[in-house]
Amino acid sequence: MGFVDPQSIGAAGDLLTSVALIIILFDGGLGLEMGVLIRSAKQALLLTVAFFFISAAVTSAVMYAGFNYSPLASVLMGFICGGTASAVIIPMISYLNVGKEASSILIIESAVTTVLCIITVLGILDSYDEGNFEVGRIIGSLLSSLLLASVIGIIGGLLWLRLLNWIRTIANTQFATFAFMFIVYGVAEVLHFSGPIAALAFGFVLGNHKPIIRIMSSNVPWFNVESVGVISDAEKKLYKEIVFLIKIFFFVYLGISMPVDQMYTVGIAAALVFSLYTVRPLVTKVLARKRISPYDNSILSIMVPKGLAAAVLASLPTQYGMIEGADIQAITYNVIFISIILTSILAPIISNTPIGKAYYSFFKNKNNTAVAESAGTNHHVKKK
Questions:
Q1: How far is CA 1 from the centre of its chain?
Q2: 84 DSSP 8-state letter
Q3: Could you tell me the domains of the chain?
Q4: Nearest in space to 325 (alpha carbons), one of 113, 121, 133, 52
């Protein structure tokens, strides 16, 4: 309606998107259980890589073959839209009664694909700028960013557990954990690793303090139950309130940033989203574990919203002087909008509707029929 635009908010807008991503991933890490993560890590990484590259390939193919964009623009669009949005998925799954294994897969996917998007898009654009494309350099940057950022987050989490008892002797320190989380994020970013992954790993350590303390105390004498502090339930509730507040500002800013003056890009975006929502159930059917209930597999197959990473990366092609940069940005914003709306509509109607039954029958097999009935019954009871 012309009342505001992203420039009205100035530098605070970019700061807000970064803060939202960090805090939401930290909260997601707090909710990850070590046992579930260990059981689902292999499956989660397999699905993450498959979802990302298949989504990128499908998007690129539709852009190139369907709308006659150049190979470079098509590939960039594919990698920009290859990931999923932590800011949408992590809050949503907490309301959907998703099983712990499926929940862990979705959290890991949203965090890792954010890094995959950033590394691949920046690698392609840098290679385009220099006229020299090096796959090895992109893969090396990706692995180092993920692994070393995780190490920084884990070390930061262990250090904070050790310092917590001392910190609590000081007045007014409920926000100290958030402050230290930003320090961990900053250290990772200064070293050119993934700050969001470091924040996720930091939250994971704090959320799994009991098994971690048990493991550490048998090997490190000064790291035991008496010497470390823990995050209380009251603090976790406070953090969730902050996450809720940050989400509101983030989505308002995201809405302000979406252009609606190029209507032909809406049709292209709708075609891309339709393609992704068609392919994802097929990939889930082939790769997801059979013991995951049809309900959880259905949720896995519809969680394709795009968000912060796509919005930020969409502006880069124009900065690098690409002719199709403006189209890429407009299409990406519309993909974000349509995918979030579609996910928000599909998620609550997966249970006890004809659409849900169609998803259930698609994912049902002899290994998970009993699990399906149990999950469906429990879900129905919780909904009541």
A1: 31
A2: -
A3: 6-383 (1.20.1530.20)
A4: 121
Taking the C-alpha atoms of 342, 348, 350 and 352 in order, what is their torsion angle to the nearest 10 degrees?
A: -140
- Residues 16/237, Cβ–Cβ less than 8 Å: no
Crossing angle, helix 86-93 and helix 11-31, to 10 degrees? Answer: 40
**H-assigned helices in the chain:** 6-9, 11-31, 34-61, 67, 71-80, 86-93, 100-130, 135-167, 176-190, 195-207, 209-217, 233-257, 264-287, 294-302, 308-314, 316-319, 325-349, 354-363, 369-383
What digits encode the pLDDT tens for the residues 221-254?
A: 666 666 677 777 788 788 888 888 887 887 787 7
Q: Enter the tokens of residue 257.
A: 């940033």
User: How far apart are the two ends of the chain, measured CA to CA in Å?
Assistant: 40
Residue 377: closest CA among 288, 290, 293, 285: 293
Cα gap 69→327, rounded to integer Å: 10
Q: How far is CA 3 from CA 7, 8, 187, 256, 266, in A?
A: 12, 10, 38, 10, 22
166-175, long-range: CB within 8 Å, 24+ apart, which pairs? 167/229, 168/229, 174/235, 174/238
Single out the residue of 59, 113, 108 nearest to residue 279, CA to CA: 59
pLDDT tens for residues 146-172?
Answer: 788 889 999 999 899 888 888 888 887
DSSP string covering 151-185: HHHHHHHHHHHHHHHHHTTSSS-TTHHHHHHHHHH
pTM: 0.72
Ranges of residues in the chain whose predicted pLDDT is under 50:
370-384
Rg (CA), the chain: 21
